[in-house]
Write a structure and sequence with these properties.
- It is built from two helices and seven strands, in the order E-E-E-H-E-E-E-E-H.
- It is α+β, with helices and mostly antiparallel strands.
- The chain has one domain: Roll (PH-domain like).
- Strands 4-3-2-1-7-6-5 form a seven-stranded antiparallel sheet.
- The longest helix has 32 residues.
- About 5% of the residues have low confidence.
Length: 141
């Protein structure tokens, strides 16, 4: 996403629950863009946009693209944290938490809705263009 020139809408730390048996909370540096969410291990820094990233660190960066995201839900406030779940299109659920004042769940939801709206508008325009093309009279034969 960053390589394609998408600007960061929000950056900061989020905690993601691991998939393992212990389900520990791991800090991730996150970059929210108009296209999705990048999860970067805190030790890594994203590559500059004009450089090609090395193969190994790039594998550590996880991209949650809005085209593969279904919903952001299960918001719960407990103590100083907000807990929320990102549900992916294939049914995978990814649990996150952050300090209440950070508002990551709202920011992710807002960007996802805006992305889906842009995609819907593009789909409608494409359909209309096809209909207009089909309805246009063809020259005499």
């Amino acid at each position: 996403m960053l390589e394609s020139g998408c600007k960061a809408v929000k950056e900061g730390m989020l905690e993601k629950r691991s998939d393992g048996l212990l389900q520990l909370w791991k800090k991730k540096r996150c970059v929210l863009t108009e296209e999705g969410l990048l999860l970067i291990p805190p030790k890594h820094s994203p590559p500059p946009p004009q450089q090609q990233p090395p193969a190994e660190p790039a594998a550590k960066i996880k991209e949650l693209h809005f085209s593969n995201m279904k919903t952001v839900d299960c918001v719960e406030r407990k103590g100083k944290y907000v807990y929320f779940t990102v549900v992916m299109a294939e049914g995978k659920e990814i649990d996150f938490r952050c300090a209440q004042e950070q508002g990551w769940n709202a920011a992710i939801t807002l960007q996802m809705v805006q992305y889906k709206n842009r995609q819907a508008i593009l789909a409608v325009r494409s359909t209309r263009q096809k209909q207009q093309h089909l309805a246009a009279p063809h020259g005499p034969r």
